Amino acid sequence: MSGHAADFQYEIYLNGMTGAVPRLPTDLTRLAELTEQRLGSGPVGYVAGGAGDGSTDRANRAALDRLRIVPRVLRDVHARDLSVHVLGRTLPAPVALAPIGVLSILHPEAEGAAARAAAVRGVPYTHSSAASTPIEQVAEALGDAERWFQLYWSKDREVTRSFLTRARDTGFTVLFVTLDTPLLAWRPRDLDQAYLPFLRGVGTANYFTDPAFQAGLARPVHEDPDAAVMHFIGLFSDPSNTWPDLAFLRENWDGPIVLKGVLHPDDARAAADAGMDGVVVSNHGGRQVAGAIGAADALPAVVDAVGDRLDILFDSGVRSGADIAKVLALGARAVLIGRPYAYGLALDGQAGVDHVIRCLLAELDLTLALSGHATPATFTAADLRREGDR
């Protein structure tokens, strides 16, 4: 990353000398409302909605808001470095794009636009199994940039094996296995619109282009798309998987494996015992279990349990650079950004995703520096207070 991420603010101010202002707000919490105004109720609800009454989504925000930063002064923060070492690679900043499926419901350029924006900024892009764009096409958009692959663990082992082979052959380096979605949650915003994009053949691109998936069809996808959709629904996830089944993934993937959706320290210990490389402390952005613990409230216990054995990443509720800083202070090595970049994509395509990434990195850089830290490594839980604590 050339210069400092914070320099983005001066770019904005200098552009303002010609009358230009940012196309999107720099307060990223405003993007959700703008997206609600721009898109139809089905797509908006699918991205913005949560499980049940949305209580877990609110808990994610409350957990982060309770954490307050205690800045330090008169420290040399002139030369700064956001880079981190995570999962065997050095990243220019502790940020990656989270896997989000069916991005074509937000913008016609879908996953390709998000991938290109990530590649330009040196931020890893995580491709969802449930994407609207096949693995190979997204890999082409990424060029030689860092790319990670997220797996929804299919009932069909041959489909799973084929996905892993395709990801490996197209340069994906880290496998993220989402464990918190063995069943689809009760999501009223989607139910009230009777909106599930997969039933319309959206979010199925990796499957419909997969030879192992195609082998299970009586006729090609284009001849009987409804049958292909029903075949997809039947094998999408496997609620019967247990810890011993992780051996199958290790046998079929050479690189790091990260388990996504871990909230309990005992599950984190089990991941370490199973030879995994990392976990993502996440409640799926509040989309799976209503009434669940806020992800940032779960993070410290997981760090205490396995922080010396696994790389711990985080998602769920992050909306700003300050949020990222807080999560890093609690012990996460990197943060996966979800809804903010989805809203940026919906509002302005690749440029919108780029705007979100640059805003987050600039605010992270400034938050650390103005708190007295030139690198994320020195910013720790000692620099935070919880509201109500003395």
Strand order of the largest sheet: 4-11-10-9-8-7-6-5
Rg over alpha carbons: 20 Å
Topology as H/E string?
A: HHHHEEEEHEHEHEHHHHHEHEHEHEHE
Shape verdict: globular
Can you put this structure into words, describing what you see?
With 390 residues, the chain is α/β, with parallel strands linked by helices. It contains 16 helices and twelve strands. It has an eight-stranded parallel β-sheet with strand order 4-11-10-9-8-7-6-5. Helix 5 packs parallel to helix 6, helix 5 (110-121) packs parallel to helix 16 and helix 13 (265-273) crosses helix 14. The longest helix is centred in the C-terminal third of the chain and has 32 residues, at 339-370. The two termini are 38 Å apart.
